[in-house]
Write a structure and sequence with these properties.
Layout lengths: L6 E3 L6 H7 L6 E6 L6 E6 L9 E3 L4 E4 L4 E5 L8 E9 L4 E7 L3 E4 L2 E4 H14 L6 E8 L3 E9 L5 H15 L7 E5 L12 H9 L1
Parallel strand pairs: 1-2, 12-13
Antiparallel strand pairs: 2-3, 3-4, 4-8, 5-6, 6-7, 7-8, 9-10, 11-12
Helix pairs in contact: 2-3
Length: 210
């Protein structure tokens, strides 16, 4: 890999375990942000080396903004100068740089507190790895009479032992606090995927609900 000029990573987020491996490479590795409407990526984030950055930077010639939901808007040559509105919540740091927070449709409203699922998932991945469980997992809201939606972690594969599950939930509470930490782990034998191999959250939730 180090013989390449650069590596572009896209299509999904980078798990903490993969990021640690990327940081050992000398070849520049970039996480890309793009969409079908722009045919390719419109922003890059360097993942390794002295130029590694925590933020995405838009490509030259693009005008970045936000709509009333806090979602990214893009206008430029790649959009034929049309304003493209995404469903990705961001923090716009300046006119060229932004932090990606997550999909607006993945926001969980639990007892009036709005929680971004992707933020919780990053902590969940680390917690599972720390107890020796390298599994796929995601976070979603499960219907709850009192809260409206209960923050729930869905984990692929067989159930963890009670002791290990308690350890994972404890790590999540410590690192996220009571309002963002999942209240339960739900186990799904195998996650559903799309035709392109990506996780199909909606289908997996239907499977989990029986």
């Amino acid at each position: 890999l180090n013989k390449m000029r650069a590596i572009l990573v896209g299509g999904a987020g980078v798990a903490p375990s993969l990021l640690r491996q990327i940081e050992q490479l000398t070849v520049p590795v970039y996480l890309t942000y793009g969409m079908t409407e722009t045919a390719s990526h419109v922003a890059l984030r360097r993942l390794n080396g002295p130029e590694a950055a925590p933020h995405y930077r838009g490509l030259p010639g693009l005008h970045l903004g936000q709509d009333e939901r806090g979602c990214l808007t893009v206008r430029g040559d790649v959009t034929n100068d049309e304003l493209i509105t995404t469903n990705d919540r961001i923090e716009l740091l300046d006119k060229h740089t932004f932090d990606w927070l997550g999909r607006v449709d993945f926001v969980i409203n639990s007892g009036g507190v709005k929680v971004q699922a992707e933020k919780v998932e990053l902590v969940l991945d680390v917690a599972l790895a720390e107890v020796g469980e390298m599994r796929r997992a995601f976070v979603a809201g499960r219907p709850d009479e009192r809260l409206g939606q209960a923050i729930t972690a869905y984990v692929e594969g067989p159930s963890l032992t009670p002791a290990t599950e308690a350890q994972v939930l404890g790590l999540l509470r410590t690192r996220l606090g009571q309002y963002e930490a999942p209240r339960a782990l739900v186990y799904v034998p195998a996650f559903e995927t799309t035709a392109s191999g990506k996780l199909d959250r909606a289908a997996t939730l239907r499977t989990a609900a029986g």
